[in-house]
Specification:
By secondary structure, this protein is mainly beta. The chain is 12% helix and 35% strand. It has a single domain, classed as Sulfite Oxidase, Chain A, domain 2. 37% of the residues are buried.
Length: 195
């Protein structure tokens, strides 16, 4: 059993959890970039050299710290080579019903990651595998799960949750948050949860 399941991290797929074949799964980088490419899971694993300790924080007010592995946002930008007119990245999840859009600057944040592993294990589908975006400085709905596409675009558009009234910026606000790691509720003053 995966350590992620042992932590009892909530599993939520509003559009229904997909069944994904990891061997045939593809992730494409497209749009306003100098290096469009489609990656299979094994290629993503081979590129996943960056490690961070960071929290995923849900807008439903829970947070979990994991040891993540993947491609840092900075390295992902180096691989994609965005053109000067690219201002945002549209992350599209498997099945293409769910998507979210983040500013390019979100990828430049020190803890941003295109994640393939957590706590030493490949990400299971339940938690967004084989590859998910991770933006610890933003509410979790910006950390799209099971992403099949990163499209670099000029203009912002509202994603799945944003079109349903969620904040476009997804800045984590001052609030009480349940810490899954310590099983305690703590008051958070806003921004990235760092405890």
């Amino acid at each position: 059993m995966s350590a992620l399941f042992d932590l009892k991290i909530p599993i939520f797929w509003d559009e229904g959890q997909p069944e994904i074949n990891y061997k045939s799964f593809k992730f494409s980088v497209s749009g306003l970039v100098g290096n469009s490419h489609t990656y299979y899971t094994d290629e993503l694993y081979n590129l996943s050299k960056d490690k961070i300790s960071a929290r995923l924080t849900s807008v439903t007010r829970w947070s979990v710290r994991l040891e993540w592995e993947g491609i840092s946002g900075i390295n992902f930008l180096k691989i994609a080579e965005p053109l000067p007119e690219a201002l945002y990245v549209k992350f599209v999840s498997y099945g293409e019903k769910y998507f979210t859009v983040v500013p390019l600057d979100a990828l430049k944040a020190s803890h941003s990651l295109i994640a393939t592993r957590a706590n030493g294990e490949a990400l299971p589908v339940e938690y967004g595998g084989p590859v998910r975006a991770l933006f610890p400085q933003l509410w979790g709905y910006k950390s799209a799960k099971s992403i099949v596409k990163a499209e670099f675009v000029k203009d912002y558009c509202k994603g799945y949750w944003e079109s349903r009234g969620y904040s476009d910026s997804a800045d984590i606000q001052k609030t009480k948050i349940y810490d899954i790691n310590t099983k305690t509720t703590k008051f958070h003053t806003g921004g990235e949860v760092e405890w």
